[in-house]
Q: What sequence folds into this?
């Protein structure tokens, strides 16, 4: 069997990692396929507003405007040199073949190397009442503003932790929305180890402090070290307020008609899972991530992972990781121009990624996943928003069926089985199960991904026959 | 404020000079702006997108990035739409409650029905 002259390389995702991967492949002389679910390139972070909108880059992307503009410009220049397929879902992966669907039309794409740049979603922890209309993820609050010039409500509370909490709140204030409060579950004083990590990117850390100052100047109530009590309101009418314990243990209530909720990001790892990649538990962020070498090779030959879909390093890290993984793939395929680029660039790209990873660790320590919150989550709180399964039902399932593993608990409770396929309840469910059976969270496992990775329309035509 | 009240949940902060489009929501005439997603169109007219099938009230979407699937609505012919990733088209007609008497005809269903018809 002779190797084909040009290797078939498929990139999934047209965010910062996917665009830089595609660019590296084109530089090496290839014409890769680029699959993306979005209508336009840019991913979520550099999401492009629809045609006909007129706000400029500075207004849309703030301090990141030059990077957003560069990414969009570079992808525009690649358009004739890549096989770009927007609004296309990669819904399954079998050895050497990626299964896609666009507008109900399925297609199977064989590949020699696959670069999965699938990005991330918000990472959510349930708060009693978070199923109510008007509660959105932080990312959703930002997308409403960036892509549609809307605020999610007339008076908004932001609750959670992580850099996005302050960024979105500041963007809302700048755009003229009313922000009632920013409530951070992270303690007021970060641990020393966090500071060491944050100093890996001092300008970015400083930018974070500026956002907090901006919010304070705008008169927004800022609270750190809070413990969420409830997203108030009614199931019929939706959100009417937020109540939390403040750092002194006193109950504070903020009236609002919308909430932006979130704790950092979680990687979209379904395709890596379907590729049978090995995963490992990452203790700082308490999430399972695919095992990677420093260039982005997964444990499955021919499958490379880059960007926030593999490691939550942010947009700058994703750009470097996308390029590095693409060059590593070409080098592994024995592609001479690609190997030359890999050899001249991999050391610098690895160094960049190491810096990003130190910063990531600092952020994860300064704005921790609220693991202590789950034990106190009341039994009536909804954990699974898709099917309204409560914390009490999940706990009873653990007690009564002895489900000490998340996939087993899913089978009995349906937590993780609904239309989001565990994206927004999976991490919290693992914490609740682990607490209920007194095991470390890594010992209860992780939800396995299933194809299709997102629901397909019923009239999608049969792929086989 | 009732979830079905005509007051908008979303607040438009900019980009309001776009051309207007007419659509129908639950049989009533409504207006959107060119480039709006269906979710924005719905929440510019009311406070809900759909009802939870599990008895926990009104829903108004959650992630806005096509990941949570919380914003499914229907065309009047029964076709399901994800409101956050669907761009409004002029003349579109959507339902926020599933059309009870319509089951979309798929190739599989057509084949099944023709087989069932042949047997009887």
A:
């Amino acid at each position: 069997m002779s190797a084909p002259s040009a290797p078939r390389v498929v990139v999934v995702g047209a965010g910062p990692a996917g665009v830089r991967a595609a660019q590296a492949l084109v530089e090496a002389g290839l014409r890769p396929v680029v699959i993306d679910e979005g209508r336009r390139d840019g991913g979520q972070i550099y999401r492009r507003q629809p045609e006909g909108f007129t706000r400029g880059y500075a207004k849309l992307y703030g301090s990141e405007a030059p990077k957003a503009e560069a990414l969009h410009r570079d992808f525009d220049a690649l358009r004739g040199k890549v096989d770009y397929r927007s609004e296309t879902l990669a819904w399954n992966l079998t050895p050497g073949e990626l299964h896609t669907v666009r507008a109900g039309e399925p297609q199977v794409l064989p590949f020699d190397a696959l670069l999965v740049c699938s990005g991330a979603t918000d990472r959510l922890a349930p708060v009693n009442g978070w199923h109510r209309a008007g509660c959105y993820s932080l990312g959703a609050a930002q997308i409403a503003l960036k892509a549609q010039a809307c605020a999610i409500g007339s008076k908004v509370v932001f609750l959670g932790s992580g850099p996005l909490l302050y960024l979105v709140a500041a963007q809302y204030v700048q755009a003229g929305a009313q922000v009632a409060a920013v409530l951070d579950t992270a303690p007021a004083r970060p641990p020393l180890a966090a500071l060491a990590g944050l100093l890996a990117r001092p300008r970015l850390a400083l930018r974070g402090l500026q956002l907090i100052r901006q919010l304070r100047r705008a008169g927004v109530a800022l609270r750190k070290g809070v413990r969420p009590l409830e997203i108030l309101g009614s199931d019929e009418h939706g959100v009417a307020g937020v109540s939390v314990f403040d750092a002194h243990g006193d109950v504070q209530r903020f009236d609002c008609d919308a909430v932006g909720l979130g704790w950092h990001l979680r990687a979209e790892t379904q395709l890596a899972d379907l590729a049978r990649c090995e995963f490992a538990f990452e203790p700082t962020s308490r999430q399972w991530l695919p095992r990677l070498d420093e260039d982005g090779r997964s444990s499955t030959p021919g499958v490379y992972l880059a960007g926030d879909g593999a490691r939550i390093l942010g947009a700058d890290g994703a750009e470097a990781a996308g390029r590095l993984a693409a060059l590593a793939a070409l080098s592994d395929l024995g592609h001479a121009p690609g190997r030359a680029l890999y050899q001249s660039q991999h050391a610098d790209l690895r160094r960049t990624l190491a810096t990003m990873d130190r910063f990531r660790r600092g952020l994860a320590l300064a704005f921790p996943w609220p693991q202590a919150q789950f034990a106190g989550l009341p039994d009536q709180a909804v954990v699974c928003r898709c099917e309204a399964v409560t914390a009490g039902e999940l706990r009873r399932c653990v007690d009564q069926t002895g489900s000490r593993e998340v996939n087993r608990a899913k089978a009995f409770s349906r937590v993780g089985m609904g239309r989001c396929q565990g994206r927004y309840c999976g991490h919290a469910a693992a914490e609740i199960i682990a607490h209920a059976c007194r095991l470390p969270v890594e010992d209860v496992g992780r939800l396995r991904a299933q194809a299709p990775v997102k629901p397909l329309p019923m009239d999608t035509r049969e792929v086989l026959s | 404020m009732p979830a079905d009240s005509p007051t908008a949940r979303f607040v438009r902060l900019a980009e309001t000079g776009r051309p207007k489009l007419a659509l129908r929501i639950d049989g009533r005439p409504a207006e959107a702006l060119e480039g709006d997603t269906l979710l924005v169109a719905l929440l510019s007219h009311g406070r809900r997108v759909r009802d939870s099938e599990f008895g926990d009230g009104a829903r108004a979407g959650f992630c806005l990035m096509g990941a949570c699937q919380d914003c499914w609505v229907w065309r009047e012919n029964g076709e399901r739409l994800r409101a956050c990733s669907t761009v409004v088209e002029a003349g579109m007609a959507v339902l926020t409650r599933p059309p009870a008497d319509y089951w979309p005809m798929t190739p599989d269903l057509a084949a099944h029905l023709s087989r069932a018809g042949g047997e009887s």
Remarks:
- Residues 1-5 of chain B have pLDDT under 50 and may be disordered.
- Chain B touches chain A through 50 residues (CB under 8 Å).
- Helices of chain B lie at 38-43, 107-119.
